[in-house]
Amino acid sequence: xxxxxxxxxxxxxxxxxxxxxxxxxxxxxxxxxxxxxxxxxxxxxxxxxxxxxxxxxxxxxxxxxxxxxxxxxxxxxxxxxxxxxxxxxxxxxxxxxxxxxxxxxxxxxxxxxxxxxxxxxxxxxxxxxxxxxxxxxxxxxxxxxxxxxxxxxxxxxxxxxxxxxxxxxxxxxxxxxxxxxxxxxxxxxxxxxxxxxxxxxxxxxxxxxxxxxxxxxxxxxxxxxxxxxxxxxxxxxxxxxxxxxxxxxxxxxxxxxxxxxxxxxxxxxxxxxxxxxxxxxxxxxxxxxxxxxxxxxxxxxxxxxxxxxxxxxxxxxxxxxxxxxxxxxxxxxxxxxxxxxxxxxxxxxxxxxxxxxxxxxxxxxxxxxxxxxxxxxxxxxxxxxxxxxxxxxxxxxxxxxxxxxxxxxxxxxxxxxxxxxxxxxxxxxxxxxxxxxxxxxxxxxxxxxxxxxxxxxxxxxxxxxxxxxxxxxxxxxxxxxxxxxxxxxxxxxxxxxxxxxxxxxxxxxxxxxxxxxxxxxxxxxxxxxxxxxxxxxxxxxxxxxxxxxxxxxxxxxxxxxxxxxxxxxxxxxxxxxxxxxxxxxxxxxxxxxxxxxxxxxxxxxxxxxxxxxxxxxxxxxxxxxxxxxxxxxxxxxxxxxxxxxxxxxxxxxxxxxxxxxxxxxxxxxxxxxxxxxxxxxxxxxxxxxxxxxxxxxxxxxxxxxxxxxxxxxxxxxxxxxxxxxxxxxxxxxxxxxxxxxxxxxxxxxxxxxxxxxxxxxxxxxxxxxxxxxxxxxxxxxxxxxxxxxxxxxxxxxxxxxxxxxxxxxxxxxxxxxxxxxxxxxxxxxxxxxxxxxxxxxxxxxxxxxxxxxxxxxxxxxxxxxxxxxxxxxxxxxxxxxxxxxxxxxxxxxxxxxxxxxxxxxxxxxxxxxxxxxxxx
Length: 920
Known about the structure:
Layout: H1 6-17, E1 25-29, H2 34-45, E2 54-57, H3 58-66, E3 69-70, H4 73-87, H5 95-114, H6 119-133, H7 144-170, E4 172-173, H8 175-184, H9 186-192, E5 197-201, H10 208-219, E6 223-226, E7 229-230, H11 231-234, H12 243-251, E8 263-264, E9 271-278, H13 280-298, E10 307-311, H14 317-323, E11 331-333, E12 336-337, H15 343-360, E13 367-369, H16 370-377, H17 383-386, H18 389-397, E14 402-404, H19 405-411, H20 417-423, H21 430-447, H22 453-478, H23 485-496, E15 501-502, E16 511-515, E17 526-529, H24 549-555, H25 560-576, E18 580-586, H26 599-606, E19 612-618, E20 632-633, H27 637-649, H28 653-661, H29 663-671, H30 686-701, H31 711-733, H32 741-766, E21 771-784, E22 793-805, E23 808-815, E24 825-826, H33 839-851, E25 860-866, E26 874-876, E27 878-881, E28 884-886, H34 891-909, E29 915-916
Parallel strand pairs: 1-2, 1-5, 3-4, 5-6, 7-8, 9-18, 9-19, 10-16, 10-17, 11-16, 17-18, 23-25, 24-27
Antiparallel strand pairs: 12-15, 13-14, 20-29, 21-22, 22-23, 25-26, 27-28
């Protein structure tokens, strides 16, 4: 804190003027946080032991006068709903619909009471406005909907009066009601506290109730008020930072004959103001971190007690904490960690999603969607303790898309209590659901260890949500008007915002991180303010009220103008006694987190004080010269051992093409043996569809291996298509859903592809082709020895089909994707193994090389049948030189092919050539 802080001045007044009656003195401040700093200021100014005066916030003070307990917004909503049901005889709304408009109406009731307006006058005024809007509608044209709408406005005074009386009877109330009752009780209160003295300090915007109470106590000579006004704002009739204080100075009777205390002249003093623009929120966090680092470097021995970071947006807190330098050894955070980001809350949200989805399905059975189940089972608070790794594996490998409750329990027959709590049916109403969640959270808590720092923090998060759930159990037991899970979740989402987890810290030591409201009354030497954009700082217009703007102006209720003035005061108060000020804003003008530069920055520039040094900088992220450096992995002895192992077991054609596509991909898949994570295929993948078609054709043709096939054989196969494709779907796709959606289309595509293939086969036989099936889905291998290779290499691969057609051997590779004739046509051998476009050629020629010894000298063709290009039929490899095209694989073609493959294998097996990533 700076030496001339406002609280230091207050402490001096207390010790000088009230030293003999400290126990009878009550200090009223705008918020609770300032109390710690005031006590510290008192401690610093006295050397002897004294009793501290009572220090309370304005809200607690008003509550004491009224004698009414404040209730939270959710409880108030329940109480209002009970009143609503007792008044509304027809067309009663569900709680969820009611809550949509009731929150806004309660906000208006609150404002009416805080500003001591006549509720009947204001609410009947609103009814009259609506009547005028519907003036021209004839009686016979008024619909039931319109009648209900007009009735709603007529009932507003009744809603207000009934709720007011209902709450008063129970001794509870919302803020406005407490303030109105406090004003009514202020005479009795001032009579009951004879001898006590009140000091009101650091206020700016007071509502009518607060004004009345404070003025009454001042007039009774029981109170004094000290403002923290700066003459720069007070004397400028247009400056919003002094809007309220100017009004009070002019309108309060007390100031007609007494001086206005205090008017300071701090803002015009020397200040170094740096305005820094940077793209995005994260950029501001990084810059704030670097500012703190430079402050530490310049003054390594000084603490950061005099430095505050004020966050215009709460969601900047976590990025900021990650951006702070390690030299920050003391820190105090006045904001809580948002309940929305609490890991335990995220688990409960996932549970709600899973069970509400299960309940909303029309099936009579309780069916879970696999993603919901996996989301819950893989949550960090569940996964280490639920022993469900095997269950997750079963769901993924068997393609379970929808799993019934019964099936899920069967799949995990050794389920523990934690698992049973997670998947217990939510069919017995809201309280039963909340009790399940409460038991689940207790179970999770018992799994966590206090010795482990991370688990201790996790326990704190779980406890915060546990309190929320228990609060909801109390509400739902007391107000048994709701029994819909959707409504329960809607209320849970509202209440979770209140479930912040507080950070532990020493409030008076080290760097101070706070929100805008927490900064009231406090002064710092160095201030860093983030999110200085319109819509964030100031917050901007928000018309969350049934009372129109012009009516608010007429009645003296606060509008966005007053709300902006409050923000203006907070901003300028932060600057008032500071010497070094950093204002950070987002330079992006479009997007979710964007907005124009704050008007406050422009105002500082336009109304620049003579002693202020104002600089403006734009920071952009440093872009590296190269966006990404390709990965290069040298071949170690272990890698060479693994390559030798692959060479002995067999290089497949797909392994060779994988290396051509990207050597790093080959390294991961073949050397490190990293396979893709098995996941549920909700929609059939192309490779799965390919497997199903391959397997169906294998089964249909298997009886004819070694035989010539006839027309009747093909016709018999056509009849079996439907049943065989279904069998293969069940074998390959397992529990996957194929009766609807995209999977049903894929099922029909598979049948159509097999049918079209058999049809072209039938036409070939009819046109005189003699087809003899030699092999189906068979693995072949051949050892390749060459002086260029360090050791022999086995070439090994699986061939889809080998047939003898009209005396020629034909090796066929099925492709479910589209292949054109150009994909299997080669014009030059040079660079065959350099281009991935040649992958089909490398593949089919590898099959021809492996089968050569089995061909018994018969001519060999090798090629592709593309199911997406069946009209082109068999697409053989052909070498095109000039105008001549060779489709038969002769010894020259074999020799040229081997030369290219040996060159490729030499590169793969050369220890001096590293695996280098290809950037596409």
